[in-house]
Structures are given as C-alpha cells and as structure tokens.
Amino acid sequence: MVSEQRIFGTTLAGETVHCYKLYGKENAYVELLDYGARIHSICVPDKNGVLRDVSLGYDNIEGYETKTAYLGATIGRVCNRIGNSAFTLHGKTYSLYANDGKNHLHGGKVGFDKKVWKSELQDNAVTFTYVSPDGEEGYPGTLTVSVTYTFEDNKLTIIHKATTDKDTVCALTNHAYFNLSGYDGGDILDHVLTLYADSFTKADAESIPHGEIVAVAGTPMDFTTPTPIGKNINSDYEAIRFGKGYDHNWVLNGSPLAASVYVESTGIQMDVATTLPGVQFYTANFLDNSNVGKNNIVLSYRSGFCLETQYFPNAINVKEFEQPILKAGETYLHKTSYQFLIRK
What we know:
Distance between the termini: 27 Å
Number of helices: 2
Order of helices and strands: EEEEEHEEEEEEEEEEEEEEEHEEEEEEE
Radius of gyration: 19 Å
Number of strands: 27
Mean pLDDT: 97
Helix content: under 10%
Shape: globular
C-alpha cells in the first residue's frame, strides 16, 4: 500500500499538524507527525496476528504540545544533558537554557520536539526538515536538519542529517517510548533486554557524566545476556538510585546490534541497530498519572522504555568522549533502525 497523509490537528499558534502513514508487511504501519518530526504510532502484528501499537503517544496535538515527556520526538540540537548549561567551542563559551535544574536537557526551552517541521512524503518514506537559526537556544550556527523515516519489512529506519554554516554542536536522537505488550499493556518490567554494551558512563546525582566509564560485569547494569528489565530495577546500586531506575548511557561495543528486547506475552521482539556510539536506556521513571495517552490510557510510571541512540551525554564538556562537533562544510549523518519481528 502507498503512504497516506491526513490532518492531525492545530497547534495553539494556529499551525496545521499533519500525520503521515507508512505501511509495512502483514498490515503493519507507522504514523509520523510533522510536529516534532515524531513517531506517533508503530502498529505491528503479535504472535497471533493481532496488530499492537507498541509506542506511547497522545490522541491529539494538545498532548504533544503541552506535555514534556518528549514522546516519539526528534530531539535536538543536542539530546540528553549538557552540564551547567554551557560549553566551550574554539575558546568561546556558549550559555544554554537550563531546563533540568542547572543543566540543559534535550535542546532547551523550545527544542526540535516543539517545532512544526516541513515535510515531504514519498511512497515508502517521509522526510522532515527544519532550519534552526544561529543562536537558537544559545547554539552557534544556522543548522539545517533533515530526518527521514522509512518502514520496510517492518523495520523502522531513521536517518538524521544536518549541515551548518558555522562550527557548532549537534547530537540528534529519537525519543520513542516502547511497550511491546502494546501502549495499554501496563509496565515493561517483564520485557527481556539485551544490550550489546560492556560498560556505561558513570553519572553524578544530576545524571551528568564526567568521563568515567564503568564495566557492567557484576552490577545491575549488566544486560549483556537477556535479562528482565524488572530484575534489578529497584536495586540499591548507586547509579540506579541516582536515576530512580534505569536512565543511563551504555557504551556500545561495536556489535551489529545495539539492543534487543522481547516480551513473551505478545511474542514481539525489537532489534535496534545504530551508527552512534551510545544508547540511553530509560524506563519512564518520571511518567505519572498526569500523562493520559491514546484511548485515555494513563501513561504511568515505567509503562514504557526508551532506547535513545546517541553521542554520550555531556560529551562536549568531556574531552575523553567522542565529540559531537559539526564543522561548517561537513555533514552530520547517522542512522538508527528498529526491526520488529516475532520470536519463533
């Protein structure tokens, strides 16, 4: 089937928001919004052939516009946290908006998730584009960004691309929340996770890494073999106490996959691959009953999980980490894919 387009709603500022639908196999489909260049729905068959929407979201534009959970959104200019809301580039210090205590989170006060992007619909893909002006949220350079989604053989692929007219910082991700039992499936503690990562970046009580990388072996952070998410999520381990559950960056080890998740109730498995060096595994520790999602389902504590592929948090302030610096004349290009299948 060909892709489809419909009007989803209107923002408070009067901008029209569109929803784009891409089809996979076995009647599977994804829905994407130009508001935040985001994932709205991912509907894939379970082991009985029943379509399950395995991504959290809202029924209307008001939910996406007024809530701060970043459901399904493209995050930028820099995903995750920058310590003390500042960085230095070529000897000049840039101050950013502090929206997570004293730190900068997910692009600031009005990040890419709150913008209506231009869109181009193809037969099996949608490309969203946004031009971030020089100085927006404190970042240098005019940044031209595109996000292309394709959905083929029930693999959702996201290609992030950006160019700049001045050296800047760029680190994009998608902030989808998944529940392989369905968005109405309750918590995700029974999901079995494998992370192809032998270490993680240690962070302080404000979730800011400062350069230390810790081996996962012998800790509750070890998902190198398939492990239920809920097995150690209430551990007294310092990192878990600081994150109020899992909310940490794992250092990927170069395997073909970054992660794999499976839940027995539906038989659905999701395999994640990326060209980026890290992945933030987050267990929706801050969702609460104020988030009412699709069909009036409450998006409560730990009702979803995120696997945000990324450069390491606070990397621009940690010289030991791979630097998310985009130079004028160069192109930022990274790919992440989510393959959905049935465990045989």
